[in-house]
């Protein structure tokens, strides 16, 4: 077992053993126990009562966080020449098509989100083995394959994120920074939880939201009472 650092021990001492906190309490506590020397991310982990191996119990969606993520998101727009100006005006960090696809095949991956057009997906398909495992492959369900390139880019820059339940039935997402005030962290957490509740599969039986944890980079997780967020 690894040795617990002094900072981690201090952080754990601020948590009451066995206590499940309200979202309001947790949003403040995640700030209080953060000890990283940088502005760490605030993450939420939501365990769902679904079986992701079954197609009718997959949970995937997008949500626009009211206060954004606090992260600088690098957007790559793979578009035809007639859409390049629209992409640049909306704030895309990189714009191109064939030349950029060639760079990606050579190993370039200095971007966080790819936005593209339906007509371009045929060219992007071969990149699936590179982009897919990294969660970068454009998908109509996440709004990253669209004719409205400008709108999609602006939404992502303003805090729109996509999420997907993993093979263990857990949704992981970054919902802010420790520098956010507690109310903004709480607002963002409630927004993603409300969206996930709306996406409950009809085939899911029993308790849907089984557990919720908030944490920051390197800090212990804080268990949140689902009833304090979900009515």
Can you walk through the features of this model?
It is a single chain. The protein is an alpha/beta fold and 231 residues long. It has two domains: 18-69 and 160-228, Ribulose 1,5 Bisphosphate Carboxylase/Oxygenase (2-Layer Sandwich); 75-157, Rossmann fold. Helix content is 29%, strand content 21%. The strands form three sheets. It has a four-stranded antiparallel β-sheet with strand order 7-1-8-9. Strands 4-3-5 form a three-stranded parallel β-sheet, sandwiched between helices. A hairpin with a 5-residue loop joins strand 8 (209-216) and strand 9. Helix 3 runs parallel beside helix 7. The longest helix is centred in the last third of the chain and has 17 residues, at 182-198. The protein is globular and about 55 Å long. The N and C termini lie far apart (40 Å). The mean pLDDT is 91.
In short:
It contains 8 helices and 9 strands. The protein is α/β, with parallel strands linked by helices. The chain has a 4-stranded antiparallel beta sheet with strand order 7-1-8-9. The protein has a 3-stranded parallel beta sheet with strand order 4-3-5, sandwiched between helices.
Largest beta-sheet characterization: 4 strands, antiparallel
Q: Helix proportion of residues, in percent?
A: 25-40%
Number of domains: 2
Strands of the largest sheet, in order across it? 7-1-8-9
Strand content: 15-25%
Gyration radius over CA: 19 Å
CATH class of the largest domain: Alpha Beta
Cα shape: globular
In CATH, the architecture of the largest domain is: 2-Layer Sandwich
Average pLDDT confidence is 91
**What series of H and E elements makes up the topology?**
HHEEEHEHEHHHEEHEE
Q: How many β strands by DSSP? A: 9
CATH superfamily of the largest domain: Ribosomal protein L1/L10, rRNA-binding domain
Kindly report how far apart the N and C termini lie. 40 Å
CATH fold topology of the largest domain: Ribulose 1,5 Bisphosphate Carboxylase/Oxygenase
């Amino acid at each position: 077992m690894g040795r617990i650092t002094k900072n981690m021990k201090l952080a754990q001492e601020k948590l009451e053993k066995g206590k499940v906190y309200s979202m309001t309490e947790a949003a403040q506590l995640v700030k209080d126990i953060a000890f990283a020397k940088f502005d760490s991310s605030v993450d939420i982990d939501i365990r769902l009562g679904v079986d992701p191996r079954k197609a009718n119990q997959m949970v995937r969606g997008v949500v626009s966080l009211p206060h954004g993520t606090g992260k600088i998101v690098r957007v790559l727009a793979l578009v035809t020449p007639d859409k390049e100006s629209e992409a640049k005006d909306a704030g895309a960090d990189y714009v191109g098509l064939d030349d950029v696809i060639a760079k990606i095949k050579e190993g370039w991956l200095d971007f966080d989100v790819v936005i593209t057009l339906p007509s371009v997906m045929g060219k992007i398909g071969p990149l699936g083995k590179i982009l897919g495992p990294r969660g970068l492959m454009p998908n109509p369900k996440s709004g990253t394959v669209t004719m409205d390139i400008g709108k999609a880019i602006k939404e992502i820059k303003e805090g729109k994120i996509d999420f997907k339940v993993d093979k263990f039935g857990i949704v992981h997402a970054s919902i802010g920074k420790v520098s956010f005030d507690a109310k903004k962290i709480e607002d963002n957490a409630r927004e993603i939880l409300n969206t996930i509740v709306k996406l409950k599969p009809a085939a899911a039986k029993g308790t849907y939201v089984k557990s919720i944890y908030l944490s920051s980079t390197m800090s212990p997780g804080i268990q949140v009472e689902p009833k304090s967020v979900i009515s």
